[in-house]
Amino acid sequence: MLPTTDWAPVTFKPVRYRRGSQLRAGVGALGFGIFAFVLASDQTNHVALLTVGGIFLIVVGVVFLIGWRGQTTIDGQGLSTTSPFGRHSCRWSEIADIRLDVDGRGDTTTVDSTIKIDLHAGRTFTLPVPRDRETGTHHDNPDLPDQLAMIRRYWQANSSQ
What we know:
- By secondary structure, the protein is α+β, with helices and mostly antiparallel strands.
- The protein has helices spanning 16-42, 47-67, 144-158, and strands at 10-12, 71-74, 78-83, 86-91, 95-104, 110-119, 124-135, 138-139.
- The protein is 39% helix and 33% strand.
- The protein starts with 9 loop residues before the first strand and ends with a helix.
């Protein structure tokens, strides 16, 4: 077994397609939210609805823009993640299982695949990346199986340290 220092850090970021989609959605929601908020200040009818809708869209836009920067980093010590919903980090020895979670949508043409981390302490969290969305025959991230295998190799080689 290699010492933990020989395991170079690897950072996973959203695939270019997904980053572009999140950026467009974030900027669009932010723009519409600001527009609705400004429109509410000029209108006497539906002020509350436009204000609440504008604030909601601004918040959604900010979450999308923050999510655009989500990432997961693995190294010989463990893994760490950054997402719009917080940060997680753990040592390899704290991990009980690393599994692929496949979630089919109701329309049966879209399947989301994410990597779940189960800790010995009983908690579970989802890695923000890598992930894949399959729509018909198109995969956002066709390299997900190889990326999952790499994460598992790091875990198996370093979990006893």
